[in-house]
Amino acid sequence: MVRVCVIPGDGVGPEVMGSCLEILQVMDLGFEFVHTDAGLQCHKEHGVYLHPEALTIIKDSAACLFGAVTRPPPERNYISPLRTLRRELELYANVRPIRTRRKGMSPRPLDLVLIRENSEGLYTQRERAEDEDTIITERVITRLGCERIIKFAFDYAISNDRKRVSCVHKANVLRKSDGMFREIFYFQAYNFASRRYGLEVDDYLVDAAALNLVRSPEKFDVMVTLNLYGDILGGEAGGLIGGPGVSPAANIGDRYAVFEPTHGSSPGLAGKDVMNPSAMILAACMMLKYLGKVKEANLLSETLDQLFERNVCTIDIGGSYGTKDFTHEFLQELERLTSSTTNAFK
Ligand code: IPM
Ligand code: MG
Fold first, then answer.
1. Most buried pick, 164, 198, 320, 345, via CB within 10 A?
2. Per-residue pLDDT tens digits for 76-124
3. CATH code for the domain in which residue 59 is found
């Protein structure tokens, strides 16, 4: 049995997770799901935003599925449990496949992968008050941090048959930190990625990358960038393919991995049976690939494409289905595709 840690969280988290697990369960994957908690409800019950056993469970699992959590009202010491997981498990790579699956959702079709440094930069939260009116925020960029995320991006591009990797930075202003990031990028490109594997490489200033994502997204294949730029570009790119309801993310380190939809817990929608479970399903799809179950991952992805093609989707992307009905349709389409694909699960 392959153990998978499951953290449904708050708000719509349990609904999209429920839908995702229903699907994974019919696939006979040999998974054992171990549930644990995070978020506001967890805090009410255990006094912490991440269950004390969560880290141990994840470390004993092959991967983790994470739903969504609700932030408490502004509170000085709150750190999102997702960030705790990223830090404690050294999940230094954030991966977001950005592909237009539902026609009409994007002004121009997108098919790229955004790879974001997930462990340092401004997210180290080094802020101090110089005086009453001035706050100094320090941004940490290390050689190790740059080297490993760039290596990750090149390895990803090579093993996923992508042709080009673009480095996104602001080295015209942040000459030392972003300058080092860009330098390491070209060093690795020259030494193996483009020399040995023929990958094309180029680089963009982050503002130009933001513009091109909207205007000419076909310029991009794999993008690799620093933490905050990746956060912002990730939101933008997600918006260009139909929003967070169809945008999954993976947080990957050398030993552990956590897969999540990029949407929040939307407390206002909780229990209303309207949330789009697609991002959660696509997060599971990324997990399956990570676990080496590529055929099964492709089958889920194909199922979603078929449904969208037939206009079977939730309200956020122009459909009329609720979470449950959509899941039901998904299961039926999955069964149809499975019986037409010989040995689909073998
Ligand atoms: C994301 C989110 C997180 C981030 C939040 C929840 C801390 O926006 O994964 O993009 O800023 O990294
Ligand atoms: Mg974000």
1. 164
2. 778 899 999 999 999 999 999 999 999 888 889 999 999 999 999 999 9
3. 3.40.718.10
Q: Which of 277, 268, 271, 260 is nearest to 316 (CA)?
A: 277
Q: Is residue 99 part of a domain?
A: no
Could you give the number of structural domains in the chain?
Answer: 2
pLDDT reported for residue 346: 46
pTM (two decimals): 0.96
Q: Which ligand 1 atom is nearest residue 118's CA?
A: 12
Residue 134 lies in a domain: yes
Q: Is 222 exposed, middle or buried (0-12, 13-18, 19+ CB in 10 A)?
A: buried
- pLDDT tens, 201-245? 999 999 999 999 999 999 999 999 999 999 999 999 999 999 999
What is the CA(232)–ligand 2 centre distance, in A?
A: 6
Residues at Cβ < 5 Å from ligand 2 ion: 231
- Within 6 Å (CB) of ligand 1, which residues are found? 80, 82-83, 231, 234
Ligand 1: which residue has its CA nearest to atom 1?
231
C-alpha 62/C-alpha 28 separation (Å) is: 17
